[in-house]
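User: Let's play a game. I give you a shape written as tokens, and you guess the letters that built it. Ready? Here's round one.
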């Protein structure tokens, strides 16, 4: 800032500004009030409302605006450099206020940061308001968007002050921050909120130009306008929207999501293979992400039961808390009525859709499926027992496992013809029920049951006469060689591991063979449906409760965001077998060359989630702290990390902004000026009487001469010291007189402000460089 008398601005005084507050102070006060008000409304976009984080973001925006004001006296190049530094510092601080882990600010993690922000942005058009999900990136983007908009508004307000115009651009941006949540989520008292917003906008646009004498008429005018608006507004609130913004957003949304039919077909694999991301799963370790259980074998293929039985689905092993986990599932390009979990799903929480029990251990949404942007938490039980635990589990199967030891035998595969009198299927289909594994079960025949009449006969002759005779004979041989259920599991998996090839275009089954029989004895090639379907059927025939599970392989681990990325190529089906006292374990007989299995190590039997958890990248990760603490998968040190993140971010921003200002201003070397001249300019600025050209020291002295002779004497002493060569400077009485003049018109706090602007000092201070205060 140039000195007074050398083309520098002069000061506003009480006679010149009609008693107005300083333009900078009044505008920043109006901007800060409106920013806090708008951010408070913005918080309604999420539940629970992140008001604390948004208040911090508003404080960052106000501090950035004040810093931008300090750069207005610099030349263009230096100003641009400092503004860039301020912008970077503001962005870093806003990200930290939003809950971003500091580690993602490292340059090596910028890709992960960009991908996460993109995920949050892509989810916004489809999420419900207020957002009750647990995707931390959606919450982070909501806070960051508000903080950046407030920062832009602050910069526009300061720029308008520098140019001497109304801050219309800042008002428009702040109005956007206010109206977006109002449109998305109507407040409880919309007209009251609107009236308060109107008053605050008026203060921002005209508050610094309003003289004290006009306060009463202005208040009356604003009151009439607000009341009139409240009267007219209900008539304009039509039932149908003037602009269907939701339709516009949906039309601009991403391509249609992918849907899956998980029932087995055994034809050529026709699942999508576009490498699109379907899910992101935050979990303590890798697992098979299950959508549905295919627990019914209809004689041809495995299907999900139309009327799933209710009741218990698993036992839970004591002293294995590590087998319980809470997953955070973020839906990307998947459209599904089934909730994706792992192992046995115990509960679904914080879902934006309806949660209904499906088959035991799985849940569905009802009519409205999950779609892009939905996020939920699921509590799962995924046992991964040791080999010793599997061998020693015994054969004490609970009663509910009996429903996983059956198969239908329709006439199409050689079952009894219901049109022939005297057969158990005369009035309905035949269901074969196999005895569970025991020391003598290898000699016990299955029971053929009419489900409607509960008529049971020996099913062994029926099965041997059907097209499943060779598969049944194989199961009986493997069962006769097994001493424990685990031995049978190993034998079946070893059988499928030798002499069978993986192909996505399996050969067509022979005309007289069901698909799984033809796979085992004719084509000997297939993909996950053939391998998992054949293994589950062999286990049931051997007395081990089993079912087919369908969903996705673990996918790839995103080390930056500590999430498992699941794509369409990961669609998969596998086998779950029941182990007494432990529950359902995961078995995957599909060869490792299959795309879903190719991500996994070729582990020894059994290929349960225990083996997967040994991978070095299966570790718990951080999540942005925007997720409520009680709901997010967190490590014990997360709270400490968040506090250090805030402190480190504040220090980074302060160092960055301070270094930029110091580097720029240290290069400025204006001519040396007297201490009293620099102090006069600073005092005028601090009391809101910023100088405007072409005011000079002599003109300022003339203004004060009529009503404040001591203040005029202070200015005269400064002028004579600057240009007349005198070294006496102002007296103490003149200094006190100028202080009293500066306090005039500033209200009750005016005296304190004047003492801050012109504190008591001693004469004869050394000469300094004027660097703008």
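Assistant: Ready! My guess for every position:
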């Amino acid at each position: 800032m140039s000195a007074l008398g050398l083309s520098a601005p002069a000061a506003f005084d009480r006679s010149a500004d009609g008693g107005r507050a300083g333009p900078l102070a009044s505008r920043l006060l109006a901007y800060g009030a409106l920013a806090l008000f708008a951010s408070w409304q913005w918080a309604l976009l999420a539940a629970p409302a992140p008001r604390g984080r948004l208040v911090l973001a508003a404080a960052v925006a106000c501090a950035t605006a004040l810093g931008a004001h300090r750069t207005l006296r610099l030349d263009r190049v230096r100003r641009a450099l400092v503004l860039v530094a301020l912008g970077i510092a503001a962005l870093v601080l806003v990200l930290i206020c939003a809950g971003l882990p500091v580690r993602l600010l490292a340059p090596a993690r910028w890709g992960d940061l960009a991908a996460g922000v993109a995920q949050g942005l892509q989810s916004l058009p489809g999420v419900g308001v207020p957002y009750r999900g647990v995707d931390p990136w959606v919450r982070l983007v909501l806070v960051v968007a508000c903080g950046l908009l407030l920062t832009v508004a602050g910069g526009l307000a300061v720029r308008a002050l520098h140019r001497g115009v109304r801050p219309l651009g800042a008002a428009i941006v702040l109005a956007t921050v206010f109206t977006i949540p109002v449109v998305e989520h109507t407040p409880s008292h919309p007209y009251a909120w609107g009236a308060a917003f109107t008053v605050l906008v008026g203060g921002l646009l005209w508050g610094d130009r309003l003289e004290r004498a006009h306060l009463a008429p202005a208040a009356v005018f604003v009151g009439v306008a607000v009341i009139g608006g409240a009267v007219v507004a209900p008539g304009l609130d039509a039932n149908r929207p003037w602009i269907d913004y939701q339709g516009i957003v949906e039309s601009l949304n991403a391509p249609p999501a992918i849907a899956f039919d998980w029932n087995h077909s055994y034809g050529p694999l026709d699942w999508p293979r576009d490498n699109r991301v379907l899910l992101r799963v935050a979990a303590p370790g890798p697992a098979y992400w299950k959508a549905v259980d295919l627990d019914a074998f209809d004689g041809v293929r495995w299907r999900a039961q139309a009327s799933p039985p209710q009741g218990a689905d698993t036992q839970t092993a004591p002293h294995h808390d590590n087998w319980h986990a809470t997953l955070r599932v973020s839906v990307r390009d998947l459209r599904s009525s089934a909730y994706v979990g792992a192992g046995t799903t115990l509960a679904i929480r914080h879902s934006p859709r309806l949660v209904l029990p499906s088959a035991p251990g799985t849940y569905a949404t009802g009519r409205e499926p999950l779609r892009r942007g939905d996020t939920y938490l699921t509590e799962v039980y995924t046992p991964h027992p040791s080999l010793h635990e599997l061998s020693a589990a015994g054969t004490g199967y609970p009663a509910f496992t009996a429903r996983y030891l059956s198969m239908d035998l329709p006439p199409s595969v050689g079952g009894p013809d219901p049109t022939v009198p005297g057969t158990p299927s005369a009035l309905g289909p035949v269901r074969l029920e196999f005895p569970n594994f025991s020391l003598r079960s290898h000699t016990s025949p299955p029971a053929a049951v009419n489900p409607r009449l509960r008529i049971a006969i020996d099913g062994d002759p029926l099965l041997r006469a059907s097209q499943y005779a060779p598969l049944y004979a194989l199961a009986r041989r493997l069962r006769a060689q097994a001493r424990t259920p685990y031995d049978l599991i190993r034998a079946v998996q070893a059988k499928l591991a030798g002499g069978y090839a993986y192909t996505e275009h399996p050969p067509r089954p022979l005309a007289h063979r069901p698909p799984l029989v033809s796979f085992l004895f004719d084509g000997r090639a297939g993909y996950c449906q053939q391998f998992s379907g054949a293994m589950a059927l062999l286990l049931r025939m051997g007395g081990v409760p089993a079912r087919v599970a369908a969903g996705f392989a673990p996918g790839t681990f995103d080390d930056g965001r500590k999430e498992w990325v699941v794509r369409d190529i990961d669609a998969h089906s596998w086998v779950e077998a029941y182990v007494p006292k432990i529950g359902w374990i995961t078995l995957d007989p599909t060869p490792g060359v299959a795309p879903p299995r190719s991500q996994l190590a070729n582990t020894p039997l059994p290929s349960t989630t225990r083996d997967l958890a040994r991978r070095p990248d299966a570790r718990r990760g951080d999540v942005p702290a925007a997720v409520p603490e009680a709901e997010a998968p967190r490590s014990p040190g997360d709270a400490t990390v968040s506090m250090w993140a805030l402190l480190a971010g504040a220090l980074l921003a302060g160092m960055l902004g301070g270094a930029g200002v110091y580097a720029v201003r240290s290069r400025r070397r204006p001519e040396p000026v007297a201490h009293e001249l620099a102090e006069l300019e600073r005092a005028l600025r601090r009391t809101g009487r910023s100088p405007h050209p072409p005011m000079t020291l002599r003109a300022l002295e003339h203004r004060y001469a009529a009503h404040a002779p001591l203040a005029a004497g202070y200015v005269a002493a400064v002028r004579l010291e600057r240009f007349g060569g005198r070294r006496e400077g102002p007296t103490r009485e003149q200094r006190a007189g100028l202080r009293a003049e500066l306090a005039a018109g500033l209200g009750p706090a005016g005296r304190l402000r004047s003492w801050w602007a012109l504190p008591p000092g001693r004469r004869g201070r050394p000469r300094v460089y004027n660097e703008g205060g």
